[in-house]
Write a structure and sequence with these properties.
By secondary structure, the protein is mostly helical. It is built from nine helices and no strands.
Length: about 200
């Protein structure tokens, strides 16, 4: 449902008059994009807190909805640039590849019942390193390049394995909203960098 809502929201944003100007404004400078990223992190933290810690099911779902909306907004400039430079077919292809990868990894965890909790430390370190690299690129103005996108695809894949394993072994049955948010966040991260790879290819 979160994925479907994201697709609908992104389509609405892309077709709404004036959103192209907003997309360009978001990436008009390193400073403006840094502000967008900081705002996204803040909203994501609040959404995850509501989804994971609230005793109210309505607030948990509101956290998931808020996070989905935040993802749609932060994807706005990337999807806009993709549409204008390489066309919508690349977006569709990248989305299909992302969903296929997600389905394959999810099926692997469910079939093997393997516990991927051992990835926690490595994912945390790799995640902090990637945040540091993004921050440095914004501060010093260098491009992260193709290798970084490939590395982030592997990182997102690791998170998908980790979160899916947690769904089977660690999440309680009343934590379905928090589990959905965690998986959706990893799926969105994967889609972001798969799309960047397809755009760089074209």
């Amino acid at each position: 449902m979160a994925v479907a809502a994201f697709i609908v929201l992104e389509a609405i944003l892309q077709l709404t008059p004036g959103m192209d100007m907003l997309a360009l404004a978001m990436i008009s400078s390193r400073g403006s994009w840094a502000v967008v990223l900081v705002a996204f992190v803040g909203v994501s933290w609040l959404a995850d807190y509501w989804a994971s810690h609230s005793t109210s099911l309505a607030r948990q779902y509101f956290g998931l909805i808020l996070y989905t909306l935040a993802e749609a907004v932060i994807f706005l400039p990337l999807i806009y640039i993709a549409r204008m430079t390489v066309g919508t077919e690349v977006i569709t292809t990248a989305g299909g590849v992302t969903l296929a990868m997600f389905a394959a990894m999810t099926a692997y965890v469910f079939m093997t019942k393997k516990d991927f909790s051992f990835l926690r430390g490595a994912l945390a370190i790799a995640g902090m390193a990637s945040v540091g690299l993004v921050g440095a690129s914004l501060l010093f103005g260098f491009s992260l390049g193709l290798a970084f996108s490939v590395g982030m695809v592997f990182l997102a894949s690791g998170y998908i394995l980790f979160y899916t394993s947690n769904v089977l072994r660690h999440y309680r049955t009343d934590q379905h909203v928090a589990a959905a948010l965690a998986l959706f966040s990893a799926l969105a991260l994967l889609f972001w960098y798969v799309l960047r790879l397809f755009m760089s290819r074209d």
